[in-house]
């Protein structure tokens, strides 16, 4: 059990360490913001960095994301990794998550909670062992793909509001969880509502988001 | 009041993390191919065989076991099958002739085990083509055990072999004939032998290059009671090659029928079909 939590602790530490050191950088509060950096950021510049464990997207996955519609919608692109000894082969997962969080509760100046997020994910796994060589199977021998997964997500997020940079960019730090399932687990449940329970098909993901 | 509110997020985070650490390990899945499982849900073949040997069958006694196959994604039916098999008197164990999972995921194999561990008798499995998809072969070895193995119970030697040739893209090595020949040539003190695999040799998913040597080895094997398969989701007992070798095919869990097989003498057997 300890072993399984290690990756999360490690990734949290890895993400927190640089931001904590940056927080102690000398900052002169009276210094005016440099006008040059007040320019609107280009549309393609990600708004946050993401580090996640589990959720079916890797032992560790990292990436970047965009936020729009007044902070209510997030799109995250992640690259994940699963070592061979946990899955039979080294897996690389490319994933996309779309999350809609309708409510933000401001608990205090420093803390905000997004209690409900719903959305979906899509992932592609590279490195699977037996995933159809040319001519191996007749057409539609297996109706599903062993590499492409998608499914619904639901979760929540707690944000620590840090003072913005001198140029006005946010430096908020969030931790989140999401519960998801994938198309094949869901299919298994929907065809066996007596024999399986919802709890058996749920997958938990935990992660950190850093605005920058 | 304000202080308490400010403190709560940290507190709830802490308790949330503790809750996950204590109970949520299984939820933290890295990939559907992630085959980590608690110790009591791994290497089940070895454990089930150890359980079987705790109830030895005296030499000369008639052997009775349940034969079924293809549990894949039929969890609703699995509950009923277990309830029915638990009513059968005098059975020593149950065999599932492959396709334990549908998509080759360890989690599915564990879901099936969750059902079958409620049997009063131990069960053994052989790998099926659905258990070989993706990283399924690795998951099967982690959850159940070897792809080719044999054991002796009472007077009977059981040889379980991977015949899912298509999953190896018909590379000419499945089933492994050196291993099969070695197993068939030595009864290791048993009186008779039984071969169990998933894909039957007369099926198009069996490697055509290995079909002749495999069926010939069975023909020449000493006191072979029968060769047993799953895969076809349809029960049958016959001699497709007209060579004196009996081939017994099981129904899938979804057909809601299994076989009670009785074996005695050199190679005598009787099969009773049970509906559930």
Summarize the structure.
The complex is a heterodimer of chains A (about 210) and B (about 280). Chain A is an alpha+beta fold and about 210 residues long.
Q: Spatial order of the strands in the main sheet of chain A?
A: 1-2-3-4-6-7-8-9
The poorly predicted ranges of chain B are 1-7
Integer average pLDDT of chain B: 93
Distance between the termini of chain B: 62 Å
Class computed from helices, strands and strand pairing of chain B: alpha/beta
Largest sheet of chain A: 8 strands, antiparallel, barrel
Average residue pLDDT of chain A? 85
Series of secondary-structure elements of chain A, N-terminal to C-terminal:
HEEEHEEEEEHHE
Largest sheet of chain B: 6 strands, mixed
Q: Give the total of beta strands of chain A.
A: 9
Estimated structural class of chain A: alpha+beta
Cα-based radius of gyration of chain A, to the nearest Å: 20 Å
Counting DSSP E segments of at least 2 residues, the number of strands of chain B comes to 11
Protein name (chain B): Metallophosphoesterase
Signal peptide (chain B): 1-21
Keywords (chain B): Signal
InterPro entries (chain B): Calcineurin-like_PHP, Metallo-depent_PP-like, STPP_CPPED1
